[in-house]
Amino acid sequence: MTALTHSTSAASGLRADAIVVGVAKGAKGPVLAPGAEAVDKAFDGKLASVLETLGASGGEGEVTKLPSPAGLKAPVVLAVGLGTVPEKNETYGTDELRRAAGTAARALTGTKKAAFALPVDEAADVEAIAEGAALGGYSFDAYKDNGNGDTKAKGGKKAKDAKGPLGEAVLLGGKPRDKAYKAALQRATAVAEEMNRCRDLINTPPNDLNPEAFAAVAQAAGKEHGIKVQVLDEKALIKGGFGGILGVGIGSEAPPRLVKLSYTHAKAKKHLALVGKGITYDSGGISLKPAGHNETMKCDMSGAAAVFSAIVAIARLGLEVNVTGWLALAENMPSGSATRPGDVLRMYSGKTVEVLNTDAEGRLVLADALAKACEDKPDAIVDVATLTGAMVMALGNRTFGIMANDDAFRTSIHEIAEEVGEPSWPMPLPAHLNKGMESPTADIANMGERMGGGLVAGLFLKEFIGEGITWAHLDIAGPAFHEGAPFGYTPKGGTGSAVRTLVRLAERTAAGDLG
User: Fold this and answer.
1) Collapsing DSSP states into helix, strand and coil, what is residue 485?
2) One-character DSSP codes across 275-335
3) For the chain, which ranges sit under pLDDT 70?
């Protein structure tokens, strides 16, 4: 990953391969953002005019490269668009800075060192720029041929002619030896590295990341970061009565797993439980997905990847909160042994579920994990899942939905998500939709009304939450996997959606801000 460092040196005197400055869209043309003063001086105060001559407007995501004049030690200046100039007495938002830094880092792929002279008013700005640079520089090339028939996945070297990410991002601004800036950089490093780990997991092909392999990754990280890891294999799942997880994974030659991760802190006063859907490949099972809908289904474990990566980040940050993670891992495949539409499963909670559609499998594995998580009586439970296409239809590809059995908790998570730059929207759980899940054979069916399908899935999960336990459900089906061109700090492929929200939730809980 791009190395992150901080310097209070002047941009003009710093040795680097490029200097990044911000430019905004003003009423009469491009306007230089704070932080660019030393670079502008080297251009005799005419940098904005030069950029305008080159066609720059300052629009968000715009990149303009130009050679440096005498007076700068870096040979290249990169101007990145920040969007519209802020109103009087306002500053650039942290996510604007994060996106700009990500855009610049992508444009500097293959560069060894770049200085970022973007607007910095406080430590939060340093953190945002650092996160953006580290996330924007991400690439997944583990399976690219290096020209010798080897790949990094096989233990080979980087792909032939492939340019690595920006080597080092030096963040300029702030005060020398300022503890707040140092802490901000450390937090950004931990969170960005774990988000990129999450992305790697999502992008790994399902023939290399089945439930057993995912569990092994969790075990290795647990040893490194002091997280206790317990893995329930298929025999333990049968003995424990985890009918939902087993019912989904029974059709695959790769058996399911339930992974428990426990992070504890001696000063913790609160306990969070995080539950992630981990379908390492989703064919739909007997209710087979059609062509055009199954090619990216390696990403159906994004919720489990987010939970796992968030807990590792929480451990690295040493937050004063106890966090238990549950990764419900299975591969949903059709075979002679697979669960059929019409089958009835007895879940871990004891409830029976009539399976009307085997492609509504995520809620089945989550139901078992949620019921198990409730036994520890945590102060709150949050599950994360790429659960429904209906949520994508409702909110699009960049926004996740939030449902909860407590309106105040749902509001808090929404505010947290927006604060860290993860678009989200609170969604209801209308009681009248429960009727559609009534079954003449079992306690409940795994399907209900088609309209409002994302809400139906949330209502199904609610049935497995213990009495008196605060719970929220994040449906990240839209933003978890990006199929279009990269933008800002968001790459093509796995994004790491929800990791930052979960980490900030843990921080707020540790600080006692959530009651």
Assistant:
1) coil
2) EEEEEEEE--TTSPPPTTSSTTGGGGGHHHHHHHHHHHHHHHHT-SSEEEEEEEEEEE--S
3) 146-162, 515
* DSSP 8-state symbol, 487: B
DSSP secondary structure string, 393-407?
HHH-SS-EEEEES-H
pLDDT of residue 156: 46
Tokens of 276: 């992630």
Q: How far apart are CA 171 and CA 144, in angstroms?
A: 31
Strand, coil or helix: 497:
coil
Residues annotated as catalytic are 289, 363
CB within 8 Å of 383: residues ≥ 6 apart? 274, 275, 276, 277, 303, 366, 369, 370, 461, 471, 472, 473, 474
Assess contact for 23 and 82: CB atoms under 8 A. Answer: yes
Tens digits of residue pLDDT in 464-502: 999 999 999 999 999 999 999 999 999 999 999 999 999
Instruction: Choose among 407, 404, 402, 378: nearest CA to 506.
Output: 378
Q: pLDDT, tens digit, for every residue of 63-105?
A: 999 999 999 999 999 999 999 999 988 999 999 999 999 999 9
The kind and range of the H/E element at 366 are helix 362-374
Q: Are strands 271-282 and 322-332 parallel, antiparallel or unpaired?
A: parallel
CA distance 17 to 74: 5
| CA 35, chain centre distance (Å) | 29
CA 47 to each of CA 111, 137, 153, 188: distance values in angstroms, whole numbers, following the listed order: 23, 26, 45, 31
**Alpha-carbon distance 364 to 451, whole Å?**
20
Give the model's pLDDT for residue 338: 98
Predicted model pTM: 0.96
